[in-house]
Design goal:
Blueprint: H1 3-11, H2 18-21, H3 36-39, H4 42-47, H5 50-81, H6 89-116, H7 128-136, H8 142-165, H9 175-203, H10 208-229, H11 234-239, H12 245-254, H13 256-275, H14 281-288
Helix pairs in contact: 1-6, 1-9, 5-6, 5-8, 6-9, 8-9, 8-10, 8-13
The structure holds fe (ii) ion (FE2) (2 copies).
Protein backbone atom coordinates (compact mmCIF):
# COMPACT_ATOMS: atom_id res chain seq x y z
CA UNK A 1 0.00 0.00 0.00
CA UNK A 2 1.39 3.40 -1.02
CA UNK A 3 0.23 5.99 1.57
CA UNK A 4 0.73 8.92 -0.82
CA UNK A 5 -1.40 7.29 -3.57
CA UNK A 6 -4.02 6.43 -0.97
CA UNK A 7 -4.20 10.11 0.01
CA UNK A 8 -4.39 11.22 -3.61
CA UNK A 9 -7.26 8.76 -4.23
CA UNK A 10 -9.16 10.06 -1.18
CA UNK A 11 -8.91 13.65 -2.40
CA UNK A 12 -10.14 12.59 -5.84
CA UNK A 13 -13.17 10.68 -4.57
CA UNK A 14 -15.78 13.37 -5.24
CA UNK A 15 -16.22 14.75 -8.74
CA UNK A 16 -17.90 17.82 -10.20
CA UNK A 17 -18.52 18.24 -13.92
CA UNK A 18 -16.59 21.37 -15.04
CA UNK A 19 -19.29 22.29 -17.57
CA UNK A 20 -21.75 22.59 -14.66
CA UNK A 21 -19.21 24.09 -12.23
CA UNK A 22 -18.11 27.06 -14.38
CA UNK A 23 -20.34 30.15 -14.31
CA UNK A 24 -20.38 30.74 -18.09
CA UNK A 25 -22.60 33.82 -17.66
CA UNK A 26 -19.76 35.63 -15.89
CA UNK A 27 -17.89 36.25 -19.18
CA UNK A 28 -16.71 39.82 -19.80
CA UNK A 29 -16.05 40.42 -23.49
CA UNK A 30 -13.85 43.49 -22.98
CA UNK A 31 -11.34 41.66 -20.80
CA UNK A 32 -8.43 39.59 -22.13
CA UNK A 33 -8.19 35.87 -21.38
CA UNK A 34 -4.57 35.97 -20.22
CA UNK A 35 -2.67 38.83 -18.55
CA UNK A 36 -0.34 41.12 -20.47
CA UNK A 37 2.41 40.52 -17.92
CA UNK A 38 2.51 36.87 -18.97
CA UNK A 39 2.36 37.17 -22.73
CA UNK A 40 4.40 40.29 -23.51
CA UNK A 41 7.63 41.86 -22.30
CA UNK A 42 7.38 45.42 -20.87
CA UNK A 43 8.42 47.18 -24.14
CA UNK A 44 5.89 45.26 -26.12
CA UNK A 45 3.04 45.79 -23.63
CA UNK A 46 2.88 49.54 -24.10
CA UNK A 47 2.69 49.45 -27.92
CA UNK A 48 -0.01 46.85 -28.48
CA UNK A 49 -3.56 48.30 -28.74
CA UNK A 50 -6.11 46.80 -26.31
CA UNK A 51 -8.32 45.18 -28.97
CA UNK A 52 -5.29 43.50 -30.52
CA UNK A 53 -4.14 42.25 -27.13
CA UNK A 54 -7.59 40.77 -26.42
CA UNK A 55 -7.44 38.91 -29.77
CA UNK A 56 -3.89 37.71 -29.01
CA UNK A 57 -4.83 36.58 -25.48
CA UNK A 58 -7.75 34.51 -26.81
CA UNK A 59 -5.52 32.89 -29.44
CA UNK A 60 -2.91 32.04 -26.79
CA UNK A 61 -5.56 30.72 -24.41
CA UNK A 62 -7.11 28.47 -27.03
CA UNK A 63 -3.62 27.20 -27.85
CA UNK A 64 -3.29 26.20 -24.19
CA UNK A 65 -6.69 24.48 -24.48
CA UNK A 66 -5.56 22.66 -27.66
CA UNK A 67 -2.39 21.53 -25.85
CA UNK A 68 -4.60 20.28 -22.99
CA UNK A 69 -6.81 18.31 -25.40
CA UNK A 70 -3.75 16.72 -27.00
CA UNK A 71 -2.10 15.72 -23.72
CA UNK A 72 -5.29 14.57 -22.04
CA UNK A 73 -6.27 12.52 -25.13
CA UNK A 74 -2.88 10.78 -25.12
CA UNK A 75 -3.07 10.06 -21.39
CA UNK A 76 -6.56 8.54 -21.73
CA UNK A 77 -5.37 6.52 -24.74
CA UNK A 78 -2.36 5.03 -22.97
CA UNK A 79 -4.08 4.28 -19.67
CA UNK A 80 -7.14 2.60 -21.17
CA UNK A 81 -5.05 0.67 -23.74
CA UNK A 82 -3.69 -1.46 -20.92
CA UNK A 83 -7.10 -2.59 -19.75
CA UNK A 84 -5.67 -1.69 -16.33
CA UNK A 85 -4.22 -5.20 -16.10
CA UNK A 86 -1.24 -5.59 -13.85
CA UNK A 87 -1.92 -2.43 -11.84
CA UNK A 88 -2.29 -2.28 -8.09
CA UNK A 89 -5.86 -1.43 -7.10
CA UNK A 90 -4.86 1.97 -5.72
CA UNK A 91 -2.94 2.84 -8.91
CA UNK A 92 -5.95 1.85 -11.02
CA UNK A 93 -8.26 3.98 -8.85
CA UNK A 94 -6.04 7.07 -9.15
CA UNK A 95 -5.65 6.63 -12.91
CA UNK A 96 -9.41 6.24 -13.40
CA UNK A 97 -10.10 9.35 -11.32
CA UNK A 98 -7.62 11.15 -13.51
CA UNK A 99 -9.28 9.97 -16.73
CA UNK A 100 -12.66 11.12 -15.40
CA UNK A 101 -11.19 14.57 -14.67
CA UNK A 102 -9.20 14.83 -17.90
CA UNK A 103 -12.35 14.10 -19.92
CA UNK A 104 -14.11 16.91 -18.06
CA UNK A 105 -11.16 19.24 -18.70
CA UNK A 106 -11.19 18.45 -22.41
CA UNK A 107 -14.91 19.20 -22.66
CA UNK A 108 -14.31 22.48 -20.77
CA UNK A 109 -11.45 23.35 -23.16
CA UNK A 110 -13.65 22.65 -26.19
CA UNK A 111 -16.26 24.97 -24.70
CA UNK A 112 -13.64 27.74 -24.34
CA UNK A 113 -12.48 27.16 -27.93
CA UNK A 114 -16.10 27.52 -29.11
CA UNK A 115 -16.51 30.68 -27.06
CA UNK A 116 -13.36 32.24 -28.52
CA UNK A 117 -15.36 32.42 -31.76
CA UNK A 118 -12.54 31.34 -34.09
CA UNK A 119 -13.45 28.99 -36.95
CA UNK A 120 -11.47 26.10 -35.63
CA UNK A 121 -9.14 25.11 -32.81
CA UNK A 122 -5.48 26.09 -33.10
CA UNK A 123 -3.23 23.47 -34.66
CA UNK A 124 -0.14 22.74 -32.61
CA UNK A 125 2.97 22.55 -34.76
CA UNK A 126 5.67 19.97 -34.02
CA UNK A 127 3.54 17.39 -32.18
CA UNK A 128 3.90 14.41 -34.60
CA UNK A 129 7.10 12.99 -33.19
CA UNK A 130 6.04 13.48 -29.56
CA UNK A 131 2.68 11.83 -30.28
CA UNK A 132 4.40 8.87 -31.97
CA UNK A 133 6.75 8.41 -29.02
CA UNK A 134 4.01 8.76 -26.40
CA UNK A 135 1.88 6.17 -28.21
CA UNK A 136 4.69 3.61 -27.99
CA UNK A 137 5.19 4.06 -24.24
CA UNK A 138 3.36 1.84 -21.79
CA UNK A 139 2.02 2.99 -18.43
CA UNK A 140 4.20 0.42 -16.68
CA UNK A 141 7.32 2.42 -17.63
CA UNK A 142 9.07 5.33 -15.92
CA UNK A 143 9.54 6.92 -19.35
CA UNK A 144 5.79 7.31 -19.80
CA UNK A 145 5.27 8.99 -16.42
CA UNK A 146 8.29 11.24 -16.96
CA UNK A 147 6.59 12.48 -20.16
CA UNK A 148 3.28 12.91 -18.30
CA UNK A 149 5.07 14.83 -15.56
CA UNK A 150 6.59 17.17 -18.15
CA UNK A 151 3.24 17.73 -19.92
CA UNK A 152 1.36 18.42 -16.72
CA UNK A 153 3.92 20.60 -14.93
CA UNK A 154 4.73 22.78 -17.96
CA UNK A 155 1.09 23.60 -18.71
CA UNK A 156 0.13 23.92 -15.05
CA UNK A 157 3.03 26.28 -14.28
CA UNK A 158 1.92 28.43 -17.23
CA UNK A 159 -1.63 28.51 -15.83
CA UNK A 160 -0.44 29.32 -12.29
CA UNK A 161 1.67 32.18 -13.61
CA UNK A 162 -1.39 33.48 -15.49
CA UNK A 163 -3.47 33.42 -12.30
CA UNK A 164 -0.78 35.15 -10.27
CA UNK A 165 -0.06 37.85 -12.87
CA UNK A 166 -3.76 38.62 -13.33
CA UNK A 167 -4.11 39.76 -9.68
CA UNK A 168 -3.13 43.46 -10.18
CA UNK A 169 -6.20 45.57 -11.08
CA UNK A 170 -4.72 46.72 -14.40
CA UNK A 171 -4.06 43.18 -15.64
CA UNK A 172 -7.23 41.29 -14.69
CA UNK A 173 -8.65 38.69 -17.06
CA UNK A 174 -12.13 37.50 -18.06
CA UNK A 175 -13.72 35.77 -15.00
CA UNK A 176 -14.64 32.68 -17.04
CA UNK A 177 -11.05 32.28 -18.29
CA UNK A 178 -9.93 32.63 -14.67
CA UNK A 179 -12.41 30.05 -13.36
CA UNK A 180 -11.29 27.54 -15.99
CA UNK A 181 -7.63 28.02 -15.03
CA UNK A 182 -8.44 27.69 -11.32
CA UNK A 183 -10.52 24.55 -11.73
CA UNK A 184 -7.85 22.95 -13.89
CA UNK A 185 -5.06 23.86 -11.50
CA UNK A 186 -6.91 22.38 -8.49
CA UNK A 187 -7.24 18.97 -10.13
CA UNK A 188 -3.90 19.11 -11.93
CA UNK A 189 -2.02 19.51 -8.64
CA UNK A 190 -3.29 16.04 -7.71
CA UNK A 191 -2.41 14.58 -11.13
CA UNK A 192 1.13 15.93 -10.83
CA UNK A 193 1.48 14.38 -7.36
CA UNK A 194 0.25 11.06 -8.80
CA UNK A 195 2.62 11.18 -11.80
CA UNK A 196 5.45 11.73 -9.33
CA UNK A 197 4.48 8.62 -7.39
CA UNK A 198 4.08 6.50 -10.53
CA UNK A 199 7.45 7.73 -11.78
CA UNK A 200 9.28 7.16 -8.48
CA UNK A 201 8.10 3.56 -8.15
CA UNK A 202 9.07 2.74 -11.77
CA UNK A 203 12.46 4.46 -11.80
CA UNK A 204 13.63 1.90 -9.22
CA UNK A 205 13.12 -0.86 -11.78
CA UNK A 206 15.15 0.81 -14.56
CA UNK A 207 18.55 -0.56 -15.44
CA UNK A 208 21.48 1.87 -15.45
CA UNK A 209 21.75 1.46 -19.21
CA UNK A 210 18.09 2.28 -19.84
CA UNK A 211 18.30 5.29 -17.56
CA UNK A 212 21.44 6.48 -19.36
CA UNK A 213 19.75 6.26 -22.78
CA UNK A 214 16.60 7.98 -21.59
CA UNK A 215 18.55 10.76 -19.85
CA UNK A 216 20.10 11.59 -23.22
CA UNK A 217 16.76 11.95 -24.99
CA UNK A 218 14.46 13.43 -22.36
CA UNK A 219 15.92 16.93 -22.36
CA UNK A 220 15.61 17.05 -26.13
CA UNK A 221 11.97 15.88 -25.86
CA UNK A 222 11.29 18.57 -23.25
CA UNK A 223 12.52 21.24 -25.64
CA UNK A 224 10.40 19.84 -28.48
CA UNK A 225 7.43 20.02 -26.13
CA UNK A 226 8.13 23.66 -25.21
CA UNK A 227 8.44 24.55 -28.91
CA UNK A 228 5.08 22.92 -29.64
CA UNK A 229 3.12 24.43 -26.76
CA UNK A 230 4.61 27.77 -25.68
CA UNK A 231 4.46 29.79 -28.90
CA UNK A 232 1.50 30.62 -31.17
CA UNK A 233 1.35 29.77 -34.85
CA UNK A 234 0.75 32.48 -37.41
CA UNK A 235 -2.34 30.67 -38.64
CA UNK A 236 -3.98 30.69 -35.18
CA UNK A 237 -3.25 34.40 -34.70
CA UNK A 238 -4.69 35.25 -38.10
CA UNK A 239 -7.84 33.31 -37.32
CA UNK A 240 -8.16 35.24 -34.03
CA UNK A 241 -8.03 38.55 -35.92
CA UNK A 242 -4.50 39.55 -34.92
CA UNK A 243 -2.95 41.91 -37.46
CA UNK A 244 0.46 41.25 -39.00
CA UNK A 245 0.45 37.75 -37.49
CA UNK A 246 3.61 36.46 -39.29
CA UNK A 247 5.69 39.27 -37.90
CA UNK A 248 4.23 38.96 -34.40
CA UNK A 249 4.96 35.21 -34.27
CA UNK A 250 8.61 35.86 -35.09
CA UNK A 251 8.84 38.62 -32.50
CA UNK A 252 7.27 36.45 -29.80
CA UNK A 253 9.64 33.56 -30.55
CA UNK A 254 12.62 35.88 -30.20
CA UNK A 255 11.24 37.77 -27.20
CA UNK A 256 13.49 37.07 -24.17
CA UNK A 257 10.39 37.59 -21.98
CA UNK A 258 8.57 34.69 -23.62
CA UNK A 259 11.69 32.53 -23.58
CA UNK A 260 12.01 33.15 -19.84
CA UNK A 261 8.36 32.20 -19.30
CA UNK A 262 8.98 28.93 -21.22
CA UNK A 263 12.12 28.20 -19.16
CA UNK A 264 10.25 28.94 -15.90
CA UNK A 265 7.44 26.58 -16.97
CA UNK A 266 10.01 23.84 -17.63
CA UNK A 267 11.85 24.39 -14.33
CA UNK A 268 9.77 22.05 -12.06
CA UNK A 269 10.16 19.18 -14.58
CA UNK A 270 13.88 19.83 -15.08
CA UNK A 271 14.47 19.88 -11.34
CA UNK A 272 12.62 16.63 -10.52
CA UNK A 273 13.87 14.70 -13.56
CA UNK A 274 17.46 15.73 -12.93
CA UNK A 275 17.13 14.52 -9.32
CA UNK A 276 15.78 11.19 -10.61
CA UNK A 277 18.78 10.93 -12.96
CA UNK A 278 16.49 11.18 -16.01
CA UNK A 279 17.95 14.37 -17.45
CA UNK A 280 21.63 14.34 -18.25
CA UNK A 281 23.66 16.86 -16.24
CA UNK A 282 26.00 17.14 -19.22
CA UNK A 283 23.19 18.48 -21.40
CA UNK A 284 22.12 20.97 -18.75
CA UNK A 285 25.72 22.16 -18.36
CA UNK A 286 26.01 22.54 -22.13
CA UNK A 287 22.84 24.65 -22.21
CA UNK A 288 24.18 26.91 -19.44
CA UNK A 289 27.59 27.34 -21.13
FE1 LIG B 1 -6.18 18.29 -17.35
FE1 LIG C 1 -3.87 16.14 -15.65
Amino acid sequence: MNAALDRIAKHGRSYEDPIAAIDWQAAEAERPWLPKGLLLGPDFQSVMPDDQFIALSRAEYTRLCAAGLWLEGLLINRVTESGLLGLETEEARVMLQEIREETGHSLMFLEMIDRAGHDDRPRLAGTHLLTAIAKRLRIETAEFWAMVFIGETVTDTFAMKALKLSKPADDTICPVAEQVLNLHHREEARHIAAARQFLASRVLGMSRHRRWIFARTLYWLLNLFLEATMYPSSDSLQRAGVLDADNLVLRLRRDPWRQEVAAACAAPAVSLLTREGLISMTQLARRGA
